[in-house]
Protein 1
Amino acid sequence: MAVWNLGSINIDNAYRVPHLPGPGETLSATAHQQGLGGKGANMSVAIARGAGRVTHIGAVGGDGAWTVERLMEYGVDTRSIATMRGEATGHANIAVAEDGENQIIIYPGTNGMITEEMIGAALSTASPGDTLVTQNETNGQLYAAQIAKQLGLRVVYAAAPFDAAAVEAVLPFVDLLVLNEVEAEQLQAALGKDLSDLGIDDIVVTLGGDGSRWINVSAGTETHVSAIPVTPVDTTGAGDTFTGFLIAGLDRGLPMAQALSLATQAGALMVTRLGTADVIPDLKDIEDARLT
Ligand code: RIB
């Protein structure tokens, strides 16, 4: 099977700071690094590193040629990424504090310029049983989810950055929803429904240091997956890594419990690394780390 990822591609500028800046505060960074990022690109790299076959659907500007090359080097099929000369690639300014917490500002750039034609052309070569994943950093999410559902793909929605209206719009087409605990509460409050009444069979709620829980509505089960304790260096991209490995595992035919275990190990290892797409671990790193 294969994974199709309609997702953002960002140029990430990460700044190491003593603490996250408050309103009106000017801070001097102790380190700066630029790399490949964006929730979408991070997930594509994680899927590839988790041994999944992934095509990224997205767009970059003239300044983003290197991000496409890098995705290709990392094993992602980049033929459905458009280059829009004269436009700016999406970028993110990320402050990373000593305790690993972050604060992110994103500028969408070309992530908001993806056309229905581009999405349709890419998905026209998908097969039933493939997976579509999308997040909330590009336009075209609803169109992609509708088309993918019609074509018999499994649709995964990672509800980040969270926006209740965006989630509500795609809900009828989603098979697996991934979101964090705060987002889950916000969604339930916005829709006035429990997670188990959303009409989605599988929901994974990430709980940070407490692991994750998987709700399978048709079986009426809720399974808790424990976190793996690590000392955080940088939490940026850990959620994307978790979701990417989860999707890669499911697409390779692993049962949900096994895919969740792999995703948990990948996410934990990612938290110990500084950076985003460029430092996402692969299966060998995970095996070597033997995190428990
Ligand atoms: O989830 C981390 C990502 O959020 C970063 O790579 C940044 O680009 C923003 O999209």
Protein 2
Amino acid sequence: MRPNNVRTCWADNQPAVSGWLSIGDSYSAEIVGHSGVDCVTIDLQHAMSDISDMIPMLQAISATPATPFVRVPSNDPATIMKALDAGSYGLICPLINSAEEAHAFVSASSYPPLGTRSFGPARGLFYGGPDYAAYANDTLIRLAMIETLEGLAAVEDICAVEGLDGIFIGPGDLGLNLGKGADLDPNDPEVCKAFDRCLSAAKAVSKHAGLFCPNGAVARKRADQGFDFVVLGSDAILLKAALASELSEFSG
Ligand code: 3PY
Ligand code: MG
């Protein structure tokens, strides 16, 4: 089966860097896939994309060196299975609040005996290779999002769920839930405590911890702290920032 770049990074004790697609288009997916990132995450939760946009985006990422990931809109087994069958090599599931929810996520994304994923890998087989069924459980990656107070309170139990590769913090939602606003101050002591708790919970059981970062500088800081799956901002954030910067240069 084709290897997963993110697992390769982790095996080398390196953080994996993900691009993040908010623009539901195959050409921007291809551009981000050729940027040098290890993987590219198609966001189906908040981006202007739906499941039918996802398939050409996965096809476009397949033509690049990056590994395709999908953030599913919710912990829905049908969507989880569809994203994997379409060739996603990693899933990020939002709003996981308990070990039971994390277990349901792992179950829907894993073939028996570990889980209950139904067999029919479609494009996944073309992308992964003919031995897909035998190696899918060990190759694909499942990250549960910690972004609520319930999720934070249960983070140790969530990290312990068998088959879950790790957690991914949603700083915007977690900030709102902590009463700090969506644009939280990363140096706020309560925020630091929450992030440290998530990182320690994952490391204690040899799992991985990632988070959404708005830019490369924040991602570097988080990777130096021990987070091993970082996002450097979405295509939409980066496009807007690049244009604003050029505009300011132009305007003096
Ligand atoms: C959050 O910040 O809540 C996220 O879900 C990041 O995409
Ligand atoms: Mg969120």
Protein 3
Amino acid sequence: MGTNPFIDADAPPPPTRRYRLTLKNTGQVFEVDPGNLPEHQDGACGSVLTVLLANDIEIDHSCGGVVACSTCHVYVNQGFDTSPNPIEEEEDQLDFAPALRDVSRLACQFVPNGSVDVEVEIPIWNRNEVSEDH
Ligand code: FES
């Protein structure tokens, strides 16, 4: 799991309940099981980034999931409140993200707790690899 040595905040806790993650761009629905979280080098454990990458969704994540870019920007259309609030470093990176919305988060740091199903959407400028044809 990649970490940023300049950030000393605790990682968000992993999900505690099963939930469904919908990717609005493609309509795909992924089951997330706290007992079988995807293993990936990039992003916080249980983060939306790890779930998408484990399901072959090629979402940009230039810094490797250590809160040093904004390329993993997603809109959380449903379940926005199921992850701890962003740390200061995430808010700083989001300031650089185009087309920011109130529901914007960095996918590498957004870790739903599983209390409700979640829908995310990859912004249009970051949809190079994601299409409705998948
Ligand atoms: Fe760089 Fe998420 S991949 S902040």
